[in-house]
């Protein structure tokens, strides 16, 4: 006998702790990804996809985000599912918000020179460790090593 599919909203909202009141954070009480800190819930579809709970809360309340938009927290609390704490914005807006709130490293304009590029390619340090040491993005170090950027430097 096939199992009856329970609608996402019926599985989702009972696992959101709303006891703090309408203005408080509403933490997800189910599975939280230990790497990202975001709550996750199974989509319930045949694809077995995990959905971010803050996105589910936003979508169930306001509808889907537009193309190129993501769901942002105003409370800086990743497990929070309170729709009043969620808004849609571009990735650029989300990053700017992160920097403004001091949640991540602010961009540091760095001028690279040929000697630094050569050192990046020669050192045995991992991408992440080297990027931190130089104040660069990990992707920048990776792109330099793969010669996607600074290809003219031997």
Please outline what is shown here.
The chain is of the alpha+beta class and 154 residues long.
Verbal overview:
The chain folds into 2 domains: 93 residues, Homing Intron 3 (I-Ppo) Encoded Endonuclease, Chain A, CATH 3.90.75.20; 47 residues. The strands form 2 sheets. A two-stranded antiparallel sheet has the order 1-2. Strands 3-4 form a two-stranded antiparallel sheet. The protein is built from 6 helices and 4 strands. It is an alpha+beta fold and 154 residues long. The chain is elongated and about 65 Å long.
* Average pLDDT over all residues: 90
What proportion of the residues form beta strands (DSSP E)?
5-15%
Structural class: alpha+beta
Give a count of the beta strands, DSSP E runs of length 2 or more: 4
Per CATH, the class of the largest domain reads: Alpha Beta
What is the name of the CATH topology of the largest domain? Homing Intron 3 (I-Ppo) Encoded Endonuclease, Chain A
Q: So how many helices?
A: 6
Order of strands side by side in the largest beta sheet? Answer: 1-2
Number of domains: 2
Keywords:
2 domains, single chain, 154 residues, two-stranded antiparallel sheet, Homing Intron 3 (I-Ppo) Encoded Endonuclease, Chain A, elongated, alpha+beta, 6 helices, 32% helix
Topology:
Layout lengths: L7 H5 L27 E3 L7 E3 H10 L7 E4 L12 E4 L1 H10 L13 H9 L4 H8 L3 H8 L9
